[in-house]
Amino acid sequence: MAAPKSTLKVAIMGAKGYPYVYGGYDTLIKELGERLVAKGVHVRVYNHRALFTDRPRFVNGIECIYTPAIESKSLTQLTHTFFSMIHACFSDVDVIFVVNSGNGPFGLISKLFGKPTAINVDGLEWLRPKWKGLGSKYFFWASKLATKFYDQLINDSDEMRRVYLELFQADSKVIAYGANPRESVESAPIKKWNLESRGYFLIVGRLVPDNNADLIIEGFLKSNSDRKLVITGDVPFEDEWANRLKNHQDKRLLFTGYVRDPDELAALYSHCFAYFHGHEFGGTNPAMLKALGFGCAILALDTPFNQEMLQNGKHGWYFEKNPESVKAIAEKAESEPEKMDEFRMSARSGLTQRYNWDYVTEQYLDVFKSLVFGSR
């Protein structure tokens, strides 16, 4: 399949690639890339070569370049972006879009080549428990360099924009992630786990400390709820912390591991009694967007980011970062099923225009055009 004719060539890098939908950044690249192609933009995505056994040059009109990396837990992503940046700078792309603030230093390369750039910096990576010591220092330093070397800084929430202004005296454009709301999702797929509609609470996310699944599990098990707590997600490597969670012995806990079938995941969200959201350090969180889009009653950790997404309590309740607060909110939810129904009814209305993928795409396209053609 030949590349579509276009006047604008955009290179995208920093995630796993296309169409490898695994996390928030991969979803952003898929949803944004496909819509840009439909608008006549030439989109090139740099794929992590080791993740792709088949390597077609074009997929759904998106040009895929398969770049290598030094395969190690701490170097894979950074070296992949480094090689991708070198390739893009020697090519005829008009603008380079990078995701992840860890790639901040590589903006120097594009600056030396005179290539216009934008970077989506994501959350407070340097605060995440998995990056201790040197890793934390690196992410703080890299995030600071991102504000110096890239032409346009992009954050996904108003609160994250405030953080970057306060810490680095750098302003950014706020462009949220989009959502794909769905109504009337069949309950049949949840029978796979012997679950019943509204018979369980749900957690969705990677099993890493900053998502606080341990806290939610501990608090829930102290509650008097007879429902199950379903934990969907895992980590793609052997991890002592995650294994300790999965070794819990309680009939109310169900670990599904990764659920890659979109219909099964949609059913798990749509038919839960309430969705627990423990993510702590991000901005606009894709799992929260899914919960709103699938009409969940949401119980979220009380953070500025979660307050922003749930419009300060309009679309959910908040718990504090301690097991007793989780216990209390689980029991409160059980005692007020009518309120849970209200949250479910209003959830999709929380997906304002800023979370619409078409609107998100228009905002990114405006950024790319201004970087290439001026009027910044």
Brief rundown of the structure:
The protein has 376 residues and is α/β, with parallel strands linked by helices. 38% of the residues lie in helices and 16% in strands.
CATH architecture designation of the largest domain:
3-Layer(aba) Sandwich
DSSP helical segment count? 13
Number of individual domains? 2
Percent range for β-strand residues: 15-25%
Order of helices and strands: EHEEEHEHEHEHEEHEHEHEHEHEHHH
CATH topology assignment of the largest domain? Rossmann fold
Give the uncertain stretches in residue-range form: 1-6
Look at the structure and give the mean pLDDT.
91
Q: Structural class of the secondary elements? A: alpha/beta
- Side by side, the strands of the main sheet go 3-4-2-1-5-6-7-8
As a whole number of angstroms, the C-alpha radius of gyration is 21 Å
Query: What is the makeup of the main sheet?
Result: 8 strands, mixed
Descriptive notes:
Helix content is 38%, strand content 16%. With 376 residues, the protein is α/β, with parallel strands linked by helices. The chain has two domains: 9-178 and 356-373, Rossmann fold, CATH 3.40.50; 188-352, Rossmann fold, CATH 3.40.50.2000. An eight-stranded mixed beta sheet has the order 3-4-2-1-5-6-7-8, with helices on both faces. The chain has a six-stranded parallel beta sheet with strand order 11-10-9-12-13-14, with helices on both faces. Helix 3 (107-113) runs parallel beside helix 4 and helix 6 packs across helix 11. The longest helix has 17 residues, at 357-373.
